[in-house]
């Protein structure tokens, strides 16, 4: 074996001892051994000694599937084939030391074979015969009612996880965190291949809803806010919970995207080999005899097919009459494909193939998050007047943020709100007032609240407030503050919301624990929260650790070791604007000697996107460098976004992908190393000050 260190391969290493489980090289060696077994089975398929299954005439033949240390082999139920499989497994065991576990191995026959024949063939492998393969990776993989049983598993897993927590000891904010971080993630794997019915999805939602509101066997908390509002995104006034039905549809849509775009993958070859005729005019229309799984995928495909677009490469795949392409103005022509109208190399110098992209994301990749958003498509709630994005970014404890969220949504369990839900209870204020106990009353109109506001640090006289409710006034103060910089207004909003929370907490202590109407205790409770936040921000501003930049992952274009050893040649990309000719000139300069030397230039219209023009110039430069160039090259760019897109592991924006792919192909196919970096210095070129360098 060889090991790559700092981008260079070492000499051959011959292992002197075997590796045990837990060794860092063990997983890689296991994969290599598994590939040997896979290649043996493929060769046996080619020689017809072990024939696999084929679900359609145009689908590939499959005789094995592998995952981790498990393998599922498909073959014909006859004696010769069984002996061939047994011989192959024994041969592999002698070579790799990985023998078949007869106690854990199972064999399943089709209903077309007799009982006597099944017993004879089972004896060849010395393993147990089963009618169902049971559960694998937590789900059922065969049987007529697989989807129904997997749906029951999803509900059981959610209920067991919820019952395992000491939910009574958790606040509603803590339960919210558990729902988002744990419960909502449990069914994701199974829902990628299981379609939940409406009743099954509603049961999952009901279990989560009861856990959030605290419905236990011995007591039930009233539901103050609808489930639909809870499932809104947090920036739209909800809790950010997910409806299981829509999540299920988004996850199945992801499989549709994989089938349509990953043409070389096995799942795409199998499904498109059988159901390619179902895909017509960018619509998946299942036939009556289609499999249940394919029918479910077709039902979930709308969010994929409605938002497909083309990323142009060489233009050979895009037909001019394509439904996802621009309709031509002139119909009487002999052109059929887009490549017939293109000059070669204009869009893509490397002539990469055209590609489908998903238009709801910037990089064109399918996203379950954006698919769920498109499926739900709930309009934001404008009636509250609260900037929810600013609210959830406040550095207050989650229990206080939840309190204010419920306050704005009229979701506090106050007497008037409970009476509207049908509870037969008194509706007057427990502080001795004759008014109805509403959010506005306990926070503003109550005599106790007035004394608290006046005794606070801001000495607020409620009679001097604008003619609006207390909640609307606080939301107005929060909406007008700048979240990027600390300010007096930012401190004010923290104090206002904390005081409201403390007043409500005092109300609960007075009502349920026979507390006293102590104003100073109410104030100290709010001050303790605000002062703790200010102290934490002070520590962060003084500690150098909090000022360190976050680490980022970059593409493997060269390495720091190579850069320092090879002393790369320095180039930079700069641009000037000619106002008289209404043109932009983007140039590559060689930074050698006292004066930069121009290597190449690109002249574009003044309104062309500057980043796009710079990338085109870098592509022109990198494509012109000859093969065999010695040394390395460092290309500086004044735009940090360009550097990030060239070095980042994530995909760039759709409009830049073709050009960036060309640049990376030029870089990787030549012997030099190209390192893209940004600089903040200023370079003078022929007396012209180049901005941003």
UniProtKB/TrEMBL annotation:
**What Pfam family does this protein match (any one)?**
RVT_1
- UniProt feature coiled coil, ranges: none
Residue stretches making up the Reverse transcriptase domain = 1-141
State the source organism's domain of life: Eukaryota
**PROSITE patterns for the chain:** RT_POL (PS50878)
The protein in question is named Ribonuclease H
Species for this entry = Senna tora
Query: Lineage from the top down?
Result: Eukaryota, Viridiplantae, Streptophyta, Embryophyta, Tracheophyta
């Amino acid at each position: 074996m060889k090991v790559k260190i700092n981008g260079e391969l070492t000499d051959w290493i011959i292992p002197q001892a075997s590796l045990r489980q837990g060794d860092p090289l063990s997983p890689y060696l296991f994969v290599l051994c598994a590939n040997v077994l896979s290649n043996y089975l493929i060769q046996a398929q080619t020689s017809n000694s072990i024939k696999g299954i084929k679900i359609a005439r145009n689908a590939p033949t499959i005789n094995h599937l592998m995952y981790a240390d498990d393998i599922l082999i498909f073959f014909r139920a006859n004696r010769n084939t069984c002996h061939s499989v047994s011989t192959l497994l024994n041969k592999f065991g002698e070579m790799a030391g990985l023998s078949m576990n007869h106690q854990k191995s199972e064999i399943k026959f089709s209903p077309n074979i007799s009982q006597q024949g099944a017993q004879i063939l089972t004896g060849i492998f010395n393993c147990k015969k089963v009618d169902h393969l049971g559960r694998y990776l937590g789900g059922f993989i065969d049987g007529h009612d697989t989807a129904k049983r997997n749906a029951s598993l999803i509900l059981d897993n959610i209920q067991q996880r919820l019952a395992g927590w000491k939910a009574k000891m958790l606040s509603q904010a803590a339960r919210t965190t558990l729902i988002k971080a744990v419960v909502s993630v449990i069914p994701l794997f199974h829902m990628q291949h299981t379609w939940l019915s409406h009743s099954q999805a509603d049961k999952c939602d009901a279990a989560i809803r009861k856990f959030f509101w605290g419905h236990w066997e011995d007591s039930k908390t009233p539901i103050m806010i609808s489930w639909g509002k809870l499932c809104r995104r947090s920036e739209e006034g909800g809790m950010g919970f997910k409806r299981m039905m829509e999540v299920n549809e988004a996850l199945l849509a992801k499989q549709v995207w994989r089938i349509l775009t990953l043409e070389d993958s096995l799942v795409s070859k199998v499904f498109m080999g059988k159901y390619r005729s179902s895909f017509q005019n960018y619509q998946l229309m299942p036939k009556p005899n289609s499999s249940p799984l394919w029918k479910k995928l077709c039902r979930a495909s709308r969010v994929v097919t409605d938002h497909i677009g083309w990323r142009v490469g060489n233009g050979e795949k895009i037909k001019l009459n394509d439904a996802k392409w621009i309709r031509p103005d002139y119909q009487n022509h002999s052109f059929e494909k887009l490549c017939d109208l293109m000059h070669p190399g204009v869009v893509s110098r490397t002539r990469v193939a055209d590609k489908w992209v998903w238009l709801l994301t910037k990089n064109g990749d399918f996203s379950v998050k954006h698919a769920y958003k498109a499926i739900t498509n709930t309009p934001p709630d404008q009636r509250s007047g609260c900037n929810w994005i600013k609210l959830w970014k406040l550095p207050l404890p989650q229990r206080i943020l939840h309190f204010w969220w419920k306050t704005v949504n009229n979701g506090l369990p106050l007497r008037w709100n409970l009476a509207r839900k049908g509870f037969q209870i008194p509706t007057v204020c427990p502080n001795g007032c004759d008014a109805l106990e509403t959010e506005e009353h306990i926070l503003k109109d109550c005599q106790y609240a007035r004394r608290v506001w006046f005794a606070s640090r801001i000495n607020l006289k409620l009679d001097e407030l604008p003619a609006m409710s207390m909640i609307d006034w606080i939301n107005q103060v929060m909406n007008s503050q700048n979240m990027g910089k600390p300010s007096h207004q930012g401190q004010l909003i923290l104090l206002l919301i904390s005081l409201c929370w403390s007043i409500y907490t005092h109300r609960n202590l007075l009502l349920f624990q026979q507390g006293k109407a102590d104003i100073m205790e109410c104030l100290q409770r709010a001050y303790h929260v605000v002062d703790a936040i200010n102290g934490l921000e002070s520590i962060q501003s003084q500690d150098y650790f909090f000022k360190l930049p976050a680490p980022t992952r970059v593409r493997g274009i060269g390495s720091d070791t190579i850069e320092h050893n090879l002393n790369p040649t320095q180039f930079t990309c700069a641009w000037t604007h000619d106002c008289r000719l209404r043109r932009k000139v983007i140039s590559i300069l060689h930074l050698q000697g006292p004066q930069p030397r121009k290597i190449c230039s690109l002249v574009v219209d003044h309104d062309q996107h500057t980043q796009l023009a710079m990338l085109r110039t870098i592509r022109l430069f990198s494509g012109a460098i000859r093969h065999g160039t010695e040394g390395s090259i460092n290309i500086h760019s004044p735009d940090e976004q360009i550097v990030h897109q060239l070095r980042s592991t994530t995909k760039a924006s759709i409009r830049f992908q073709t050009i960036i792919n060309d640049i990376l192909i030029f870089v990787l196919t030549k012997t030099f190393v190209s390192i893209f970096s940004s600089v903040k210095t200023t370079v003078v070129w022929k007396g012209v000050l180049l901005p941003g360098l």
